[in-house]
Amino acid sequence: MSFETETQTLDVAAAAAARRSIRVYRQEPIPREDLERIFEIVRLAPSAFNVQPWRFVVVTDPELKAKLGAAANGQKQVTGAPAVIVLYTDMKQVLDNVDDIMHPGIPADKRAAGAAGFRESWSQKTDAEREQWGASQGYIALGYLLLAASSLGYGTSPMLGFDPAKVKAALGLPSHVAVPALVAIGRPDEEGFTHHRHPVDRIVAYR
Whole-structure pTM over 0.85, yes or no? Predict the structure, then answer.
């Protein structure tokens, strides 16, 4: 997919510096082209064993957003944003399609052995154990999503305060999947708080 557009984009450092958690949005629909550009970036996120367990549902329907808002304890950005992105992970689907994650550059016999070994390594795990691990991978994609949205000038608000069962019921998702986050997205209608972060020397050590 080509990224040629009249929309000015920010580089990674600028997108990270510009990003805020936004809770008030302009009532402007998000063009499908912008969403596709965001997800073209998100799909490049790395994952252990290349599992790519993340899946996304972009919700713009007001009735569905209202259900998600109720599931998210009434957080105003759920119903106030033009769209809410539901991030979920589905390790069962990954295991049912393991061949899809094997790199085509690997010789066929090694791809087959790798797929068999991967299936075996997860065969004794419960759905809950699989999805807990899958969700940990999903947070990598979440980071890419937030930066990609910021690079196009969109505000976001990642949310963890919600009832996953109610979210899955509202969207008709399988009961076994995990839902790591909801993300409100749209053009900001507030500045948001400036960054309040630890300095580098508090979070990094060199040995």
Answer: yes
Q: What is the CATH number of the domain that holds 125?
A: 3.40.109.10
Does residue 55 lie within any of the structural domains?
yes
C-alpha dihedral (153, 181, 62, 16), degrees to nearest 10: -10
pLDDT one-digit tens code per residue, 32-87:
999 999 999 999 999 999 999 999 999 999 999 999 999 999 999 999 999 999 99
Between the CA of residue 130 and those of 90, 91, 92, 93, 134, what are the distances in Å? 9, 6, 8, 11, 6
Dihedral sign of CA atoms 133, 135, 139, 142 in order: positive
Asked if the structure places residue 196 within a domain, the reply is: no
For residue 21, the 8-state DSSP code is B
For the chain, list the strands marked E by DSSP.
54-59, 83-89, 155-159, 178-186
**The domain containing residue 58 runs over which residues?**
20-189
Does residue 175 fall inside a structural domain?
yes
Q: How far apart are CA 87 and CA 73, in angstroms?
A: 18
Specify the number of domains making up the chain.
1
